[in-house]
């Protein structure tokens, strides 16, 4: 039976429940709870003899039913993220919302509501606030991790006014930072005073374009940048009338999160209130309880910590322990101190934990669930063996993507599970992809070709009203580049994930690789074009070709650059180190430099990366001079045979 026919037969009877009045729609709970319970009484030999789609039917129905019920409830009761936040604050004002693990500061739901009301009244035009913000305005937040609670109060306060918030990565500098603020249409920049030196570089140009700049402090050492802290603290904490944001709907833009993509400069991804509420339901879908204590050390300018973590905890009613940055030495101590039961990760986090020296108390904790993405199968197994029987729930998705997966069964190594039910709600395909031309393979009719079980294929998901693709703010070209048209039939439109996945016969999905010019390192997407653009400003470099190469024992790929020197110029490792330290985020810095007499290009002058990636930094395959980044010596030093082996065995840390 075909997947589409199977999905239709399974879902039609359940979908009929949507025609019933609201209370009766809760009948979704019957298959959601009943089928998994009944399956426990069936003989294991009988269950294993069933086709895969029947064998996993109880878990699939439970997952889809729970997901639909959550999202239906959100649509009935909430229009915006503020509605959800205020409802939780009214119902449980004394419930602990966030604890700053670095300072020990903590705030309840009621206290956060009061703080955000002060922000709204200090900044809002309706309250004669000094800034005069109103519904539809955009504010850019530029803060370091230790300012988590303050940053969240700004976010909720601005959202109460109906403003949209652009979350800026605090590690970007210069032109990319200026572009990030302006590309979102920001009318104000609210910045951490600790980032004074960075702000002062771009403030004159921002102010020339009409962007007001503020520090969240009592004083300001920068001309034209005003202090805002005292004004907020002096403002009333009386509730903000919802009429202030009367025009906000579930489809209104709520916030912008930036992604490098493949075009070089950061692009603001549009997230509307409906998308925020859907992502906030992820913790509930993973099995997080109201009594849980959630721990994250991921940055708030990413959707993982902000929407899955913070908003997920608000939606579920549990407490979030917010660490300003990840620390191997403090991670488990924090978990024990705060009685943490759920942790959030990216693949690198759990690998770092597994690589740390073993301790007798490794399994002395209350963590029962780990939620995140990017965990390799071998690290997964090592993590469970060392730290105990913790349930791992992998989530696959992207900031701009129109669908995602959750590994709700706990299959080791899988990023999620597909099913006929999920496919009918959010149709997707894995299609053949040519890595040389970097385009999908099409048949004689011009249609893309789905791959079979076990084959790697490009993940594409159908754009529908249920699964829309909101795209990027600004140029329509950026949005159009992420779309594929006429994939399976004339006129259809699919979102191009840029990821190669495989699917086994039971429907479990496995990550294979990323395509194009973007690679992942330290949990971040790195745009090769952005790095190439920055390195081209170095006075002794004539041409630059940036790519990612794998390193044994490390997640993702580390940056490497093949370069051609300007005539008459010599390579200066110290100067290059100083340049990238000031001009690039830490995760985007190339760790290897390969000097070539000429860079290989195609007939259309496109730089060729495939052979360079294959050769990596292998001294036995490369005769060109190679250099490696040495942060301790603050230089690029020649890659010797001893250094090469030290990198391979992990004794030289990248």
List its salient traits:
654 residues; alpha/beta; 8-stranded mixed β-sheet; 7-stranded mixed β-sheet; cell membrane; fatty acid metabolism; lipid transport; transmembrane
General description of the model:
- There is one protein chain.
- This protein has 654 residues and is α/β, with parallel strands linked by helices.
- Among the domains are: 1-77; 109-270, 3-Layer(aba) Sandwich (Rossmann fold); 518-649, GMP Synthetase, Chain A, domain 3 (2-Layer Sandwich).
- It is 34% helix and 22% strand.
- It is built from 23 helices and 30 strands.
- The strands form six sheets. An eight-stranded mixed β-sheet has the order 2-1-11-10-12-13-14-15.
- Helix 12 packs across helix 14 (303-316) and helix 16 (347-355) crosses helix 17 (377-387).
CATH architecture of the domain at 109-270: 3-Layer(aba) Sandwich
Q: Let me know the number of strands.
A: 30
Please give the radius of gyration in angstroms.
25 Å
The class by helix and strand makeup works out as: alpha/beta
Approximate helicity band: 25-40%
Oligomer: single chain
CATH topology of the domain at 109-270: Rossmann fold
Distance between the termini: 50 Å
In short:
This protein is an alpha/beta fold and 654 residues long. Among the domains are: 1-77; 109-270, Rossmann fold, CATH 3.40.50.980; 518-649, GMP Synthetase, Chain A, domain 3 (2-Layer Sandwich). The chain has an eight-stranded mixed beta sheet. Strands 7-6-5-3-4-8-9 form a seven-stranded mixed beta sheet, with helices on both faces. Strands 16, 17, 20, 21, 22 and 23 form a six-stranded antiparallel beta sheet that branches.
């Amino acid at each position: 039976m075909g997947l589409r026919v199977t999905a239709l037969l399974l879902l039609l009877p359940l979908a009929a429940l949507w025609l019933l009045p609201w209370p009766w729609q809760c009948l979704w709970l019957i298959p959601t709870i009943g089928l998994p319970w009944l399956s426990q009484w069936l003989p294991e030999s009988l269950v294993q003899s069933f086709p895969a789609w029947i064998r996993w039917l109880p878990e699939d129905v439970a997952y889809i039913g729970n997901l639909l019920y959550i999202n239906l409830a959100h649509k009935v009761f909430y229009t915006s993220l503020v509605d959800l936040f205020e409802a939780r604050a009214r119902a449980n004002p004394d419930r602990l919302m966030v604890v700053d693990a670095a300072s020990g500061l903590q705030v309840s739901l009621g206290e956060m509501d009061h703080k955000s009301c002060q922000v709204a009244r200090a900044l809002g035009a309706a309250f004669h606030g000094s800034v005069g913000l109103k519904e539809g305005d955009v504010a850019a937040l530029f803060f370091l991790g230790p300012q988590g609670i303050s940053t969240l109060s700004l976010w909720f306060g601005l959202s109460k006014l109906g403003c949209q918030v652009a979350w800026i990565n605090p590690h970007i500098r210069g032109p990319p930072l200026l572009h990030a603020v302006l590309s979102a249409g920001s009318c104000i920049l609210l910045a951490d005073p600790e980032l004074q030196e960075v702000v002062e570089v771009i403030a004159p140009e921002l102010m020339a374009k009409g962007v007001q700049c503020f520090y969240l402090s009592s004083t300001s050492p920068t001309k034209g940048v005003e202090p805002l802290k005292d004004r907020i603290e002096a403002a009333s904490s009386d509730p903000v009338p919802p009429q202030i944001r009367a025009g906000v709907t579930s489809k209104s833009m709520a916030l912008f999160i930036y992604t490098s993509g493949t075009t070089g400069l950061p692009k603001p991804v549009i997230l509307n209130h409906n998308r925020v509420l859907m992502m906030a339901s992820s913790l509930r879908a993973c099995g997080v309880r109201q009594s849980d204590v959630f721990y994250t050390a991921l940055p708030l300018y990413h959707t993982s910590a902000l929407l899955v973590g913070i908003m997920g905890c608000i939606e579920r009613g549990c407490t979030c322990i917010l660490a300003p940055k990840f620390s191997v030495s403090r991670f488990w101590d924090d978990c024990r101190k705060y009685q943490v039961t759920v942790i959030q990760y990216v693949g690198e986090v759990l690998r770092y934990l597994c690589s740390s020296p073993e301790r007798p108390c490794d399994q002395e904790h209350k963590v029962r669930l780990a939620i995140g993405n990017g965990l390799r199968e071998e690290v997964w197994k090592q993590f469970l063996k060392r730290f105990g029987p913790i349930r791992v729930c992998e989530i696959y998705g992207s900031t701009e993507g129109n669908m995602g997966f959750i590994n709700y069964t706990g299959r080791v190594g899988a990023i999620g599970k597909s099913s006929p039910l999920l496919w009918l709600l959010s149709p997707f395909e894995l299609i053949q992809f040519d890595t040389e031309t970097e385009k999908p393979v099409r048949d004689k009719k011009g249609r893309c070709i789905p791959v079979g079980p076990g084959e790697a294929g490009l993940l594409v998901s159908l754009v529908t009203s249920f699964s829309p693709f909101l795209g990027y703010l600004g140029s329509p070209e950026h949005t159009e580049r992420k779309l594929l048209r006429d994939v399976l039939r004339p006129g259809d439109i699919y979102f191009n994930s840029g990821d190669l996945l495989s699917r086994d016969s039971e429907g479990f999905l496995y990550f294979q690789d990323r395509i194009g010019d973007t690679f992942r390192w330290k949990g971040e997407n790195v745009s090769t074009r952005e790095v190439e653009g920055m390195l081209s400003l170095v006075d002794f470099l004539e041409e630059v070709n940036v790519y990612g190469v794998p390193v044994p024992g490390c997640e993702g790929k580390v940056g490497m650059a093949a370069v051609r020197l300007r005539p008459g110029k010599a390579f200066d490792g110290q100067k290059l180190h100083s340049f990238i330290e000031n001009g690039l985020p830490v995760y985007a810095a190339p760790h290897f430099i390969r000097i070539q007499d000429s860079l290989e290009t195609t007939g259309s002058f496109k730089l060729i990366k495939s052979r360079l990636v294959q050769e990596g930094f292998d001294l036995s395959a490369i005769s060109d001079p190679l250099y490696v980044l040495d942060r301790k010596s603050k230089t690029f030093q020649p890659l010797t045979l001893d250094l090469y082996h030290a990198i391979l065995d992990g004794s030289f840390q990248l």
